[in-house]
Amino acid sequence: MAKLVEGCQSVLDIGWAQSPNPFLLNENVVGFDLNQRSLPRNYHESVAGDAHDMTHIFSGRRFDAILAGEILEHVEQPHAFLRSCRSLLSEKGRIVLSTPNPNSPIERLLTITLNRNYFYTTEHLCLYPQRWLIRMMENSGFCDVELHSGGFPVPFLGLIPFPRPWCHQTIAIAVKDSRDET
């Protein structure tokens, strides 16, 4: 995900506290999360708050890019969340997010068996098939949506490359659509 925001001066990393991204080498990286935590070397500011209030918390500030890794499936109002992200982006700013893919072989197998023990957290409110993820982002004021594979987890190897339709995590990148500024 860090590669997808290379060249952006200011980056807002939403939900960073559990897993800071050591590969973000941007000029100004702001971590935003429910919890405050000490800053890793490559982060410049930590802001604590709820995503529902981020437009008020960052009132008047704009970012060249927003990262939202594994956040969308946790929010009750995903369209409102995406619109809030859009409002915090500079003109032609971009959002990069990742979210579980409900079409991954793991999820398919666990759905067939209705297994509630693995990859089934009460904190996930919804999973988004890839074509509907594109529509949701476009309906929330983004354009040029591209989807990438987030790989597939293999024990002892970690994430390995895997075709996008069946990857375990979908990575989406989109640009703020400035045609309909409200």
Rounded average pLDDT: 95
CATH fold call? Rossmann fold
Q: What's the total number of strands?
A: 9
Using the 3D structure, state the CATH architecture.
Answer: 3-Layer(aba) Sandwich
Number of helices: 4
Write down the secondary-structure element order.
EEEHEHEHHEEEE
Describe the biggest sheet?
7 strands, mixed
- Principal-axis shape: globular
> What is the CATH C level class, in words?
Alpha Beta
Instruction: Specify the CATH homologous superfamily.
Output: Vaccinia Virus protein VP39
Amount of helix: 10-25%
How far apart the termini lie comes to 28 Å
* Rg measurement, Å: 16 Å
Order of strands side by side in the largest beta sheet?
3-2-1-4-5-9-6
Total separate domains: 1
Low-confidence stretches: none
Structural class: alpha/beta
